[in-house]
Amino acid sequence: MVSGHMLVAFTFLALASFVLASDPSPLQDFCVAIDEPKDAVFVNGKFCKDPMLAKADDFFLKGLNKPGNTSNQLGSMVTPANVVQIPGLNTLGISLVRIDYAPYGLNPPHTHPRATEILQVVEGSLYVGFVTSNPENRLITKVLYEGDAFVFPVGLIHFQFNIGKTPAVAFAALSSQNPGVITIAKAVFGSNPPISDDVLAKAFQVDKKVVDRLQAQFWMDIN
Ligand SMILES: *[C@@H]1O[C@H](CO)[C@@H](O)[C@H](O)[C@H]1NC(C)=O
């Protein structure tokens, strides 16, 4: 039999995960974000437009049919559709991206600190994966084809690699209006100012020269 304490603990855990798993729940139908606080209400970190002044364009974004420019060292590009592009997403806990991949293009290992992601391939084929947290650090991977979907749990390091000889396209939904992105290589070796090479040499168990070379590289992010 489950004791009263256990029951309380389980209830608390269930509630805590419900409350903390995504952006805060909205307290109103919507809260279209505006920069100008004059005549506005302040909710969940942004100013809301007067709901009576909200218009269709606040909830609208055009152009996701257009491929992103993948002419870069990674051969991929993310086109975001989050609260920055669609102010009506404010407080609603959801957003979207389009990702284009040149042949053998890579969306390099990265995490979203605030969102789980579900990605669907609409063209081509992708080798995707994520790594579970310590101590297992288990790599979970799959090859995806047109019409396949795959989930990257919140906060975990993940990647997508176009293994086809043709371009690939995917769309992904994310459980935050502002998922955030940390591109691992760029954050570690391309931080501003740089992390001390003593720190990185020890952390990566390599010679400082290796670290210096990595830090001298140009680290781009595609989202
Ligand atoms: C794509 O990006 C490359 C590199 O920045 C640039 O040279 C090229 O003009 C861009 N292509 C288009 C179609 O915008």
Automatic annotation (TrEMBL):
Top-level division of the source organism's lineage: Eukaryota
Domain Cupin type-1: 62-212
Signal peptide: 1-21
Keyword terms of this UniProt record: Apoplast, Disulfide bond, Manganese, Metal-binding, Secreted, Signal
Compartments, as annotated in UniProt: Secreted, Extracellular space, Apoplast
Main location: secreted
InterPro entries (alphabetical): Cupin_1 (IPR006045), Germin (IPR001929), Germin_Mn-BS (IPR019780), RmlC-like_jellyroll (IPR014710), RmlC_Cupin_sf (IPR011051)
Disulfide bonds: C31-C48
GO CC aspect terms: apoplast
Record: residues binding Mn(2+): H110, H112, E117, H158
Pfam families: Cupin_1 (PF00190)
Residues at which oxalate binds: N107, H112, E117
Molecular function in Gene Ontology: manganese ion binding
Protein family according to the UniProt entry: Belongs to the germin family.
Name the UniProt record assigns to this protein: Germin-like protein
Organism from which the protein derives: Aquilegia coerulea
